[in-house]
Write a structure and sequence with these properties.
Trypsin_dom, signal, disordered C terminus, six-stranded antiparallel β-barrel, disordered N terminus, Thrombin, subunit H, mainly beta, binds arginine, serine protease, 5 helices
């Protein structure tokens, strides 16, 4: 049984304060035992660019208000998925969310480590298409800058880190089973970048969604069992030390035939000067 895109998005609603169980739960993938499905615990100290997006007003306080992931791309900018800022996820327009914050340096969401930083501005890619999920990318401007040591380099167009077969890691505090078991501690799973042919075959269009090579990439594990899942959206996919993708969508979680689909960050045009290094690097 596969999970259509619309249901994948609805899964984020399962994080609402009422503590609703995912309304359309899918069977747990066979290999999912432990993001991130099939992952391992990691610490923010080793991956300082991973942040949690938080609103206790919208999502309750038990897990620090976490509802999506994000990644630090400049001291005062966090990149995330555009769909994370949608009314479908927030239940409000983003400008009406009173306490949108990022949490940096806090491995354990139930703890008080690291810092919480307010968001003063949001930018959603004008290329974003909520129907297809193409160009699923947004930027948050932070009220106070984070240390430069927390910034990850965004992979430029043509970066070899996008080559199929490259090992990548996805990070998040999302569902670890596909059944609404949200992690309180950060996890990462190792996946492989897949070829566009494989991604098109997995998502030819229709109920499961359509893979669009220009603005997406897909990654997974041929046996299944390792993947991002609900609540990981907006979080980073990292290869060769650079940011190549943002968790965007997928059918179910960790299913061998349905890899995770990510925003191809190099393909989305960013506001001029927003992300040092990223688009400049292409000109070197
Ligand atoms: N849309 C989901 C979210 O909002 C992410 C789903 C990713 N799914 C996957 N199988 N990789 O959190």
């Amino acid at each position: 049984m596969r999970r259509p895109l619309v249901r994948a998005l609805a899964g984020a609603l399962a994080l609402l304060p009422a503590g609703l169980v995912a309304p359309l739960a899918v069977p747990a993938p066979a290999a999912a035992d432990s993001v991130v499905v099939g992952g391992r615990p990691v610490r923010t100290a080793e991956s300082p660019w991973v942040v949690a997006l938080s609103s206790r007003d919208r999502f309750g306080g038990t897990r620090g208000g976490q509802f999506c992931g994000g990644v630090v791309v400049a001291p005062d900018r966090v990149m995330t998925a555009a769909h994370c800022l949608s009314r479908a996820v927030l239940g409000e327009e983003v400008r009406d969310v009173p306490d949108l914050r990022i949490i940096s340096g806090r491995t354990e969401l139930t703890g008080s480590g690291g810092v919480e930083v307010a968001v003063t501005d949001t930018w959603v890619s004008p290329q974003y298409d909520p129907v297809t999920n193409s160009a699923d990318l947004a930027l948050l401007t932070l009220a106070d800058p984070l240390p430069a040591s927390r910034v990850i380099t965004v992979a430029p167009v043509g970066d070899p880190a996008y080559t199929p077969g490259t090992t990548a890691s996805v990070y998040g505090w999302g569902d670890t089973t596909g059944e609404g078991a949200y992690a309180t501690s950060l996890r990462a799973a190792q996946v492989s970048v897949l070829s566009d042919t494989t991604c098109h075959r997995a998502y030819p269009g229709g109920l499961d969604g359509r893979y669009i090579a220009a603005t997406m990439l897909c990654a997974g594990d041929s046996r299944g069992g390792r993947d991002a899942c609900q609540g990981d959206s907006g979080g980073p996919l990292v290869a060769k030390g650079r940011l190549i993708g943002l968790v965007s969508w997928g059918s179910g979680c960790g299913l061998a035939q349905s890899p995770g689909v990510y925003t191809r960050v190099s393909a989305v045009e960013l506001p001029h000067g927003a992300v040092r290094g990223a688009q400049e690097a292409t000109r070197v």
